[in-house]
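Protocol step 4 of 5: obtain the predicted structure for the target chain.
Materials: sequence only (see below). No template structures provided, no constraints applied. The aim of this step is simply to have a reference model before the mutagenesis design in step 5. Sequence pasted as it appears in the construct record:
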Amino acid sequence: MRFMVIVKANEDTENGVMPTTEELTAMGNYNEELVKAGVMLAGDGLYPSDKGARVRFDGKGATTVIDGPFTEAKELIAGFWIWELPSLQDAVEWLKKAPFQEGEVEIRQVHGDEAFGEALTPEIKEQEDRMREQIASRGQ
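Step 4 output (C-alpha cells):
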C-alpha cells in the first residue's frame, strides 16, 4: 500500500523559517533510514502558501484563481512523503520515529487500481501504466 504522509504547516513554516543544520541532519538521517528500508518513494518540503495559488472550480466550467497566502496555517501542508508499506499501522510505526519535536502529521492511503472498480477499464489502466513508466524513466 502507498501512503501520503502530510506534514502540517505552522506559523514558522508559513513565515519561511527554515530548519537548522541540526534539524536538517536529523531529518536527512531519518530519510536515509526510510530509503534503505525501501519505504520512501518520494518526499519534499513546500514553500509557504504566499508562493502558491488555489484554483477553484465552480462546477459550470469557470475557474477562479486565489493567490496565497492562505489563512489557518494548521490546515496547510509544509511537506510530504510518499511511502510504500504493508499497512497503515506500519506507517504509524515509522512515523513515530520521525525527528519532530512538535506539530501534526497526517497519514492517508493512496488509491490503488482496485479502488476504482469497473470504472478503470483496460484502456485507462494501460494509459495509467504507460504514464507511470514515463515518469519513472525521467528519474533515471
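Step 4 remarks: Residues 84 and 90 are 10 Å apart (CA to CA). Strands lie at 2-8, 40-45, 53-57, 63-67, 77-84, 105-109.
Proceed to step 5.
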